[in-house]
Amino acid sequence: MNAREQYIAFMTILRKEIRRYTRIWTQTLLPSAITMSLYFVIFGSLVGSRIGEMGGFTYMQFVVPGLIMMAIVTNSYSNVVSSFFGSKFNNSIEELLVSPTPNYIILWGYIIGGVTRGLAVAVIVTCVALFFTNLSIYSFPVVIGIVTLTSVLFALAGFINAVFANSFDDISIVPTFVLTPLIYLGGVFYSLDLLPEFWRGVSQLNPLVYVVNAFRYGVLGVSDVNIEFAFGMIAAFTVAAYLYCMHLLNSGTRLRQ
Amino acid sequence: MVPALAIENLSKTYGNDFQALKGISMRVEQGDFFALLGPNGAGKSTTIGIICSLVDKTGGQVKVHGVDIDLDFAGAKKFLGVVPQEFNFNVFEKTRDILLTQAGYYGIPRTTAEERADHFLKKLGLWDKRDTVSRMLSGGMKRRLMIARALIHEPKLLILDEPTAGVDIEMRRSMWEFLQEINAAGTTIILTTHYLEEAEALCRNIAIINHGRIVENTSMKSLIRRLHKEVFILDCGDALPEDIAVPGFVTRKLDSHTLEVEVEKGQDLNGVFNSLSQQGVCVQSMRNRANRLEEMFVNLVEVAKA
């Protein structure tokens, strides 16, 4: 395929992905808006007003970046895992596999599809947050960089989950038992400074700590971790996940017999 | 002229050590209408799966229009259109969207894709269902949708894996006509089917595969010529005599008015009619007991088994 044909193939996958999640927007876009509104009301307004300041900001201002990042992570991940596994489940993935579309175009088509959903939900959640607090951006390059890297990373993670999943149960196990605990323990609702020395050290092993703090730095200008190190970690994880996904596609793992 | 498909010593062993293909070789010329027959589990779908990249081969070589799939699979895929046995489209997508999406996977620009999609939707009687979600289509419509999808990039080689399974007789006939039409226009077709009269009616050449080996690969005409026996059912107007017999022919009385006669190669039917006429039996109609090719197919498969 020449470059133009590859571009058409990529746009076809992307268009299909966007069409899929907008067709079922009540299952894909709306739940995050409602869940985050509840977080803002309960943790931000009701409980947050009793907590007082954290890291030099109101509790509401403190939790908003983490909650937006939480929406990006879960939506980028779940879009790719459910779409790609669904294609495997109903065998429509064969439409792609028998075509001359290169594997990297297949991967990027699904990944960017997941990224667009993550970003769409981020915009919705940010709009909801503006009803509760004022938001200003401390560093646009950091915000754009971390949002892009994070959504790509978790879309890739969703792809890996989808490749190995044998049933719909398998695509909910990782989000429920791995992703959600890591997010909640990733400093969305608290500063790592509040933790005892030991648990602060353990938290450094949680990749979500770097994601949440890097984004919080981009929005508020404060972070519990070194921002360059956080970027380096996320970029390294993203490259490793991408290479692994390409290996899975090239070898046909769980896709070809 | 390079063949549309050339397979050399193709083998496939699955992870459970099941040897699905044991070094098959075959060649399909451009413009041919080729039947690939075999009982269930013979290796037909594995062969098709390897050609279209859904199954990894263990050994051997496959060339599509001269392009080796090991060297340039993407190039080979452009020549190929595949209609699989099982429905494999997104059941939540609309009929027309499925065709447009497939065209996109082949890098076909949107306007060209729309023209072709509309052409095939009309040609295959799906135009009225273009905006219908595909899960709402009937079984026959789903089959036709898969044929339209396989043709959207105008492949030179079309592989159909049991395309008329579960399709009613009228629809099957109209699909036959359509396939003959695109074959006449230059598309090479490889057909697997369990309806042997379908293979006989459509195909010029045939390969029979059994237990992972090609047990026959010849022209349909030469295969039919090798039939050494045909069985006819004769419906008679009056009750047949108790001791009915036709000298030189093996006969069986099926009921009081129906006689079965075996006619060996070289014998003619006049002898049967003369003999029956002398016995005062009037034949009102006559038909083959079973498809002639079916008899041959069963024989070949049985021989291979032995």
CATH third-tier fold name of the largest domain in chain B: Rossmann fold
**Helix/strand order of chain B:** EEEHEEHEHHHEHEHEEHEEEHEH
Question: Which percent range describes the beta-strand content of chain B?
Answer: 25-35%
- Pair with the most extensive interface? A-B, 32 and 35 residues
- On the 0 to 100 scale, the average pLDDT of chain A is 91
Mean pLDDT of chain B: 89
Model regions low in confidence, pLDDT < 50 over at least 5 residues of chain A: none
Q: Structural class from helices and strands of chain A?
A: mainly alpha
Q: Rg of chain A to the nearest angstrom? A: 19 Å
Largest sheet of chain A: 2 strands, antiparallel
Estimate the global geometry of chain A from the Cα principal axes.
Answer: globular
- Which CATH C-level class of the largest domain in chain B is it? Alpha Beta
Strand content of chain A: under 5%
Number of domains of chain A: 1
Name the helicity range of chain A.
Answer: over 70%
